[in-house]
Each structure stands twice: as structure tokens, then as C-alpha cells.
Amino acid sequence: MLPFSRSRGLWFGLALAFLLLAGLGFLPQLGGPGYEAALVAGLVLPSIAAVTTALEIQARPPLPLAAVARGIYVGAALAGLGLFTTLLHGMRVGLCDPREGTLLFVLGPGLGAVLGGATGAGAGLVAAAVRPRWSKAVATALSLLGPLGGIAVSLIRFYTSPMVFAYDPYFGYFSGPLYDTVIGSLWPLATYRLGTVATLAAAIALAALVERGADGRLALFPAKRPGIALGFLLALGASGLVTAFGPALGHYATGRDIERALGRRVSVGRCDVVHSSAVPPSDARRLGAECQAHLTQIERYFGASGPERVKVLLFASEAEKARWMGAGRTYIAKPWRNEVYIQGAAYPHPVLGHELAHVVAGSFAKGPFRVAGPLGGWIPDPGRIEGVAVAAAPNENDQLSVEGWAAAQLELGLLPRLSNLFRLGFFGEPAARAYTAAGAFVRFLHAELGAEAVRRWYGGESLEAVTKMSLSALERRWHERLRAVQLTEAELATARARFDRPAFFERRCPRVIDRLAGLAAMKLAVSDIEGARETYAELLALDAADPGARLGMATCSARAGEDDQAEAVHAALAADSAAPAWARTVALEARADLLLRRGELEAARSIYAELAQKTADPDRLRTLDVKRLAPPGIGRDAIVMLLIGDADGPSWDVAAAKLGEWSALDPKDGLPEYLLGRNLMGRGRMRHAAEYLERALGKRLPEPHVRDEALRLRLVAACAEGDTAAARRARDALLARDLSAARREGLQRFSERCGLPMDAASSAFAEPR
User: ∠313-318-324 over CA atoms, to 5°?
Assistant: First the structure.
């Protein structure tokens, strides 16, 4: 038997693994046990274990059982070293969640490295039978077939199905999109690893059945060890069962599996909507019509035709979408499949147009994924990919256009450089900042050179070749255009709050912090105040300055009737110059909310009015107006229960009753009907919402923000119900209002999708004011 204890190969493998993981551990998000560290180790350790073992075995091959045992030993040694190295980095920078991180490591690269070692043992035995001249190369190549083959299988599944997650025998678990920071339950990974353990048991049993015959060759002798032979069959069967029941266990899913699970289908025009049985058929048909209308607008913007048919997979919830394709919080499109994957939301759907833009852009992209990027799209360029989608389907109810928000970024010194934006450095920027800047640049390119230039660039030509300008000259020209945009102080303040946030890689423990924040919010929702406090305390132990957790602690105090303590936290956060602008604003508004709840109307109104001077966000302005204008008595009680809540939190049920009572007591005030209509729309009750909104518009409403929104919602409800006459009245009334250019453009885009093209009468109101 080979004297493995003196093996230089193992020491070399250990040294290589340590140097790689120790070096990578200095990168953001890799310093300590966690999802990213486990994923990277899963890409490194199994391959090192496989090659190290294979080279040892092929040099002096032992019996198969000893070879497999050696492979398991090598894999375990590398896994232990990897975990130790990761823990060292965690002690250096601080541990996020050592229990979860360690479990991820053990179930991911830990077992993957052990399997890699066993794979290397088999490769070494096969290589030992070839000519010595080629045995090392054969051993190396065969040993890497397992880890590389696993990655290939995951990529094939990604390409041929809606899946964006992956479970792999070697690297473990890939959760999918970067922005889905909460990875969910590890139970599917644990059940997946039962299959890995069964596979290892089968390999050990098979090796135990192999002996060297009288002629010196290896041969199977199952009759000599029937118990081991039976164990081999049982282990192999268990591994096969885990694979066969993979879709049911959440390990993988084909397109057919997902469509069968959703169970319903409706087609409108070129759009096939495959939807969950929990989604009402009327909602699915409405979304299909919306899809068809979006395609027309997007194709006109790009000057190109999209695919003949588009499939929309419509899930009922984040949880259902995460279960089947792995992107719970992130909307996804796969242009090469002509498919988009979304969950149900209010009408109009907030991101359907954006995702469809990806699919249409795929018609003039190259490469297997039909996206922009170097090497014919084999390396995606997220800046170009997301930029064209933002440009073709911008937010339709925002105070500023994407160009306006980019101009604000430039004014505030937050605008990314073009050299960083259109490459993988896109992910190094905060998401809102990167998406907006990329979209603004694409719209600039479209305005300057037309749709053909956008198509050529997206199709693979360099920006310099398309524009006949250097990147620096093009950037200067773009900045000149942005500097011409006139911005108010309120718009700049809103932009600072929106864009001055850290990028994913700048955050400490983002996955653990976001998971704890979500858990605390769930506890608050069921009035488990002490539980929420404990969870926020865990979060603050990781990041004492986290503004969300500080606000959460204040909410716990307010819900517990400890107003003085809540106000102290709000005051401290509002005065903290190191806190982000959005947090200081939220803290100040929360203080006013406490005053309103206590009935101190004048003090609360003063703060709301102050906040209104510092924002240009129409949603925030409208909410501030509703709170500021709350009348004493039942009106205040209704608004508090709807927007702020008592000790048990906000309650739509209680608020609805109070809104009805308020409306009866003050029949000239349209605010209660507006609030009822708005919330009914959020619950999908379009017909009833339209009735309340129509009544509200015939009464007194706060100007201009609430009335503007009431008209917009009336238009939306009428479009949803197919009431063209009411939709036209609401549209024309809105066009007569003093809307910003961006909101006017969005109104016209939505009106067109609603079947209301601009005519001579409505065009009289079309110019921005």
C-alpha cells in the first residue's frame, strides 16, 4: 500500500487550497463562513481533492477500497482546512451567522470535497491501467470530469428550463440572482446531500466487492459478500430515488414540471400566460393583454420585431416563484427562451414591460443567451442588458425621467463612470444607481443616433465604433446633456435619499441582515413585539449602525406604548449625520406619526409640512398630505389605523369601517372614498374601487397630489374593467393637470396600452407645463 502519510501530493493540495481560500477571503462577502464563501469553496475544493487523489492513486494503485478510503480522507482533510481558513477570516472581520455559515460549508463544499476525493480515486484507478506516459494526464482529466461535469449539467438546466438556481454534487448550492439576498431554507440542500451520502456509500460498497484475482487483475466478487452487494444496491437505489424525486424535493425543475405545477394557461395576441391556479383567470387575461400592448411599444422603440410568441410564467407569490425557479424577489427574463417569470402584482404590472424589453432585445443580440456582452454575448454585460430595458420601459409614474435622475446623480457626484457601468463592474454599484444611469445613457444614445445605434451596440459592436467617438468624449457629451437638466432642491434631496445607498459588496453580512430584518418584520406583523426586539438586537449586534434595525427597535417601542423611548431613537437617528438621508427622513416622519397617533395634530402637521418641502417623490408627497390633512376625530382615527396603526399595528379591516363612518359624517370630503378606492385596487377589486374613486373625484380632495393620484387610479381601474369612456375622461382630466414631463410621458404610454391613442382633443393638453 502506498505510504500516503508521506504523500507530497496531499501537502501540495492542502497548501494550494489554503492559499486560494486565504487570498479570496480578503474579498468582500468572502470573509467568513456564509453563502458566498461556501459557493467559492465549492468551486475550488472538490477539484483539488479529485486531482490530488487521482495523481496519488495512479502512481501506485492500491485496492479499490483503499483508494476510495484515501479519496474520502483527502476530501475530508481539504474540507476541514477550508472551513478552518474561512473561520479564521470570520474571526478577522467578524462572524455573521456562524451556525448557518458552517452548515452551508459542510453541506456544500464539505461533502463536495469528499465526493471529489472519491471521484479522484476512481479516476486514478482507471488511469493506472493506461500507458505510464499518459497516466498523469488521464488521471487529471478524468478526475475533473466530475466537478466540471456537474457545472455543465447546472448550466444545461439553466439554459433549457426556467431555473436560475442549482444543486450540484460538488459545489453544493447556487441560489440564483445576486439581489435575492435571502437564500431561504437549507432543507432542500440537506435532502439533496442525502443523495450524495448514498452515492458515497454505493462507491464504498462497490469498492469492497472488488478483489485482485489469481491473474492479478481486479474483478467483482459479489457472491463472496452478499450483504455488501445488497448494501450497494440499496445505496444506489437511494441515490437514484433522490435524483428521480428532485422536482418534488426542490432540487431541480424542468419547464414542463413548472407549467404542470402552475396548472393554468391563457393566450392573448402573441402572449401565452401560464399562471398559477391561485391567480384569478381575469387577472391572467388582463396581464396577457398588457403583455401584448407592451410588445407593440417596445418594438417601436427598438425599431425591431420581437419573437413571434412570448411566454409569461405568472406565479401567485414570491414563495411559489422561489420554490420552482429560485428567484423569489427578483423578476427574470430568459431571452433565448422567449420567456419572462414574474409574480402577481397590482395592475398595471410594475415590471412586465422591463422584462419583455429583455426578450425583444434578444432579437438583435448574438450568442446562445441572446444578450449583449463581450465574446458574442458569452460574457454578459449587465449594464447594456439592464440599460436597454430601463430605456425601453421606464417608470411611468415618477416625477423625473431616468435622464432627470441621472442628472441628479451627476450633480450629487454619484453617477457611475461609463468605463465601470458597461461591464461586470455594474454589480459594484448600488442597484438603483446602476440601473438608472445605464437606462439614461441608452436613452441618450437613442436620442442622439437612433434605434439602429442601440441595436448595433447591443448586437456586439463596440460603443466607439457605433458612435465614432472615444468613450471619454462620449461621456463628456452625455454629461453636458445631463447638466442642462434643471433640478429643484427637493428633487436633489429625493435623489440623495434614493441613490446614496451602499452596493451589495459594500454591505456587511447582507444576507444575514436581510434575513433577520424580514424575520423581525414577520414577528411585528403578528404582534410578537418581544420576539421582534430580540431579532433586531441580533441584527444590531452585527451592525450597530444599521438604520433599518434602529427604526425597527423604535417601532417595537411605539407598539409597546413606550412612546418616550421610541421618540428618543427617532430623534437620535434624525440628528445622526452619519446615517443615510432616507433613514433620517423616515425617523422624522415616524416621530410625526407618533404625534398624530396621540392626537397632537398641529405638532405632527408641522413636521409633515417640513418633510414635504424636501421631497419630490409624488408617492411620499401624497402620503404626507393625507396625514397632514387628517381631521380631528374619526378622520384621524381612520388614517392612523390605515397608515400607522395602534399597539397591534395597522389594520385595513378596522380602517375601512372608520373610513366609512368618516364619509357618512362629512359627505363633502372625498378623502375617505379615495382611500377606500385606493386600497380596494391594491386588493384587486377594480369594479368596487372605481365606484369609490368616482365618488371621491366628485368631492373635495387635497390638491394637487391626492387629486392627481385619484385621477390616475380612476384611469387604471377603468382600463382594467374595459370602460373606455371613463378611461378617456380620466386621461383627459389628467392631461389638463400640471404634470411633470416624465409623468406626462408615462401617462401617454399607459393610455396607448389602454387603447386610448392620442387624438386631436387630448393632444391639446399634451405639452408639458
Answer: 55
